[in-house]
Write a structure and sequence with these properties.
This protein is of the alpha/beta class and about 350 residues long. The chain has ten helices and 17 strands.
Length: about 350
């Protein structure tokens, strides 16, 4: 492996330690190399705390070596004053002679300004090392800033014959008809911990009574979102329990807050999804995982407002029921579990 690729790969690995905790900041890892040895490394842990480059610099025991070292980082060092000072200025002040960057930061606040500071300080700058991988790692961050909306992940489970649920009647108990096993369900809770918000429709709330939390995984609960246009959801449902931040998008109640439960009114004359995504953008929410139901998932697909799709295909045979969404799959990845197969793929526009 190319030596620059090797150290950049380490930056990417370090950056992943911050998944789910750095919002609204990106995932960033950094290593400092002297004489072909890593003498310092760090990653960004949380918004408001030191950035990856600073943590890597602080971990170097002999600071005199910095003037002879190369700093690697998967994202362009920041150039603006926020909750922390600009990393690019600090790097220049310390006299680090070479900086290798995975990808540029395309946000308005940075967008080449960090590189400019480094170059003006006489630093040798190299850009575009594992750039594809660097952008993939921060897909949420780039989508949010470049498309002005959150990164959208669609997720559902379907039977082997293509149904996401059985036919239900008034006597059917409330709760999900499980298609996947415990391992897959634990994985879903891990996914929830990685995203800032989670969205479902009215039918899913009424039929499954989901909690939409990370109770089977260590991590933050996502902000729970549900669409209930006519406010018909049972106030005693799990999603209305006010234990974690929840937003109900409806057409009746105007921006009312009851502890952790917030009601946001949307228009009936505009796309509900566009209104919701615009609202999330204004809240600085960079990602949303959509867990159903069929109507809501199909709406995202029809309006082409999605970036990634994750589908569990179980071994169950339903024979009849609610049909799973249909979507054209080109390139995809497959993971086999004991009770199902996970197929994941990206939108051609992602």
């Amino acid at each position: 492996m190319n030596i620059d690729n090797f150290y950049m790969q380490r930056c990417l690995e370090l950056a992943k330690n911050g998944i789910g905790n750095t919002y609204p900041n990106p995932l960033v890892g950094s290593v400092i190399v002297y004489n072909n040895e890593i003498i310092g490394e760090g990653y960004h842990t949380k918004s408001g705390e030191p950035h990856a480059e600073i943590n890597a610099i602080n971990s170097v025991k002999n600071k005199k070596l910095l003037k002879k070292s190369t700093l690697y980082v998967n994202l362009e060092p920041c150039s603006h004053w926020g909750k922390t000072p600009p990393c690019s200025i600090k790097i220049a002040e310390l006299g680090i002679p070479k900086v290798v960057i995975g990808t540029l930061d395309t946000t308005d606040k940075v967008s080449g300004k960090g590189v400019k500071i480094l170059l003006e300080a006489g630093i040798d700058v190299k850009i575009g090392i594992l750039e594809k991988e660097a952008r993939e790692l921060n897909k949420r961050f780039f989508t949010f800033h470049e498309k002005k909306r959150p990164y959208v992940i669609l997720k559902w489970a379907q039977s082997a014959d293509g149904f996401i649920d059985k036919i239900r009647n008034i006597d059917t108990p409330i709760g999900p008809n499980w298609i996947t096993g415990k391992i897959e369900r634990t994985l879903v809770h891990k996914w929830r911990a990685e995203e800032q918000s989670i969205l479902v429709g009215t039918n899913t709330v009424e039929k499954d009574n989901p909690s939409l939390t990370t109770r089977n995984w260590f991590g933050n609960n996502p902000i729970r979102l549900f669409i209930d246009k006519n406010l018909r959801t049972n106030p005693n449902s799990s999603i209305s329990d006010k234990t974690t931040k929840t937003i109900c998008f409806n057409t009746i109640k105007e921006n009312f807050v009851d502890k952790n439960l917030q009601f946001v009114k949307i228009s009936t004359t505009k796309s509900s999804l566009e209104q919701i995504l615009n609202y999330l953008y204004e809240l600085n929410i960079q990602s949303v995982i959509v867990e159903g139901g069929q109507k809501l998932l199909n709406s995202f697909i029809e309006e082409e407002l999605w970036d990634e799709c994750r589908v569990f295909i179980g071994e169950n045979i339903f024979l009849e029921g609610i049909k799973a969404p249909e979507i054209e799959v080109l390139k995809h990845k497959t993971i086999k579990f004991s009770n199902s197969t996970l197929i994941s793929f990206k939108s051609s526009k992602a």
